[in-house]
Amino acid sequence: MKEAAEGRVPTGVAGIDEMLGGGLIAGRPYVVSGTTGSGKTTLGVQFLHEGVKRGERALLVAIDEPPAEIVRSLGWDVGKIRILDVHPAAKAFSKRVSLVEVAAQRSVGSLREAGPSAKTEAMKQASPEISVQSLQLMLKQELGEVRYSRMVIDSLTSLKKLSENMEDMNSSIMSILRFISESGVTTLMITDLPDPTVLEPEIFICRGEIRLHKRMVGNRIDRCVTVEKFRGSAHDTLPRPMAITEMGVSVDPHRKIPKASLKMLQAFTQYGR
Ligand SMILES: Nc1ncnc2c1ncn2[C@@H]1O[C@H](COP(=O)(O)OP(=O)(O)OP(=O)(O)O)[C@@H](O)[C@H]1O
Ligand SMILES: [Mg+2]
Question: Whose CA is nearest to atom 1 of ligand 1?
Answer without folding.
Answer: 246
